Amino acid sequence: MRILLVEDNLDLGDAVESKLRSAGHSVQWVRDGVAALRWGLDETWDALVLDINLPGKDGFTVIRELRAAGLEAPVLVMTARAEIEDKIDMLDLGADDYLVKPFDLRELEARLRALMRRPAGQTSSVTAYGNLSLDLANRHVSLAGVPLELGRREFRLLEILVGRLGQTVAKERLMNQLFDLDDGSLNALELLISRLRKKLAGASVDIVTVRGVGYQARNHEHS
Q1: Average pLDDT over residues 96-122
Q2: I need a labelling partner for 193 at 20 to 30 A (CA). Which of 68, 69, 123, 173 fits?
């Protein structure tokens, strides 16, 4: 896979570049928004890994201009905790996923693999879990062929849980990935889980509470 890495922090950029290269990817690392635009438009990429706070042009501008120029490759944004309130803007501008710093490099690689799983030229990456279908690229869910109306956080919660199907995800981890620094509480998470469970009634995927730890998505077949 050919990956364009845009990160001005030398330590983080070096760590990400080394991790991606060791996983067998071809990486071009640039350190500012102007270079990101030039490289992004001049070459063909399988994915972009992009910091938001960049010299020259910020990450928002880079995403917007590359998408306007016809870039179709998935974009994974790396963002500082202080910038997380902008995540809705990122997704609306054309980012496909985001990671909050500091993050585990293994998770970065796993997210990239998920983004790049869709075949070239296809705008959907549909994964079926029994009668539940998730289209990560288009943020679309259907249950037994019927579209399911999910809010952005509900979709993200479902995406995280089914991405680790059969594994327990800690409440703290879910709160870090779903909420801003100030608006997340255990009550808010439990409310979100409850809403999602109601919408998944009849689905082949159940969300199970693991007491004192977190939540787990489990696959089962309805008769």
Answers
A1: 76
A2: 123
Instruction: Indicate the residue among 61, 95, 116 that finishes a domain.
Output: 116
CATH number of the domain enclosing 85: 3.40.50.2300
Domain count along the chain: 2
**Residues 153-192 pLDDT 10s:** 898 899 889 888 888 999 988 888 787 655 567 888 898 9
For residue 100, the enclosing domain spans 2-116
State the DSSP string of the chain. -EEEEE---HHHHHHHHHHHHHTT-EEEEE-SHHHHHHHHHHS--SEEEEESS-SSS-HHHHHHHHHHTT--S-EEEEE-GGGGGGHHHHHHHT--EEEESS--HHHHHHHHHHHHTSPTT----EEEETTEEEETTTTEEEETTEEE---HHHHHHHHHHHHTTTSEEEHHHHHHHHS-TTT--HHHHHHHHHHHHHHTTT-SEEEEEETTTEEEEEE----
177 vs 30, more confident: 30
